[in-house]
């Protein structure tokens, strides 16, 4: 077995632990039987339990939001390629009911992808699509790595940037969006998560920032108007608030995203459609 995730890769274990906990509930918002075994293989996520407790159901609601996005993008919208940036311990290639012919590209650091592959092989897990692991640091030439893995920019693509952008500097975020746009055929979709400055500055987030700093996972960017921002990059977008998701799925609004408690602080969940260029 490759070494367990360390440093920034520990954040992937945090999210997998949230999915594993959700799997225990009869009214769970998704099925992910692989999450718990992955967390065990990674050595648990107790070192990040404080972050998960503060998040409440945010990670669970976020997961379901992006699950629904991918389902719509690859069925109704006709995207035949999915690219998950900084995929971590994501198991959507295994647990979602993909349409035949769908290719799911997972981009992440080589060590983390190797760890996940070995853990999934030990479970004899089989993907429900054509899963393609793309081992590449996003600070390097990831478009080239994606091309070499079989990605076709002429086909409509569903892009997923979940739990990523806040960890990147502003210039890196802008470059990432430019590159994604340049690889997106007409009809492509994008979904992402980001935060605004008020959320970064919340007093209750200080302990989270301190813990993430220890993992070399410092939050470095934010956005005030994701719809306008995505529009500048060629996408027609809309956002969904966690309170709406909580109501839709009969869950409590996570305190960290409740406007009554955090005012104008926002975790943005956004989706966009590629404009005709």
TrEMBL record:
A single GO BP: methylation
The organism's place on the tree of life at top rank: Bacteria
Keyword Transferase annotated: yes
Answer yes or no on keyword Transmembrane: no
Q: Which GO terms describe its molecular function?
A: methyltransferase activity
User: Which enzyme type, at the first EC level?
Assistant: transferase
Query: What is the name listed in the Swiss-Prot or TrEMBL entry for this protein?
Result: S-adenosyl-L-methionine-dependent methyltransferase
Checking Pfam families in the record gives:
LCM
Which organism is this protein's natural source? Lentzea tibetensis
The EC number(s) given in the record are 2.1.1.-
Function of this protein? Exhibits S-adenosyl-L-methionine-dependent methyltransferase activity.
Question: NCBIfam families, from UniProt?
Answer: mthyl_TIGR00027
Q: Which Gene3D superfamilies match?
A: Vaccinia Virus protein VP39
| Keyword vocabulary terms for this entry | Methyltransferase, S-adenosyl-L-methionine, Transferase
Q: Per the similarity annotation, which family is this?
A: Belongs to the UPF0677 family.
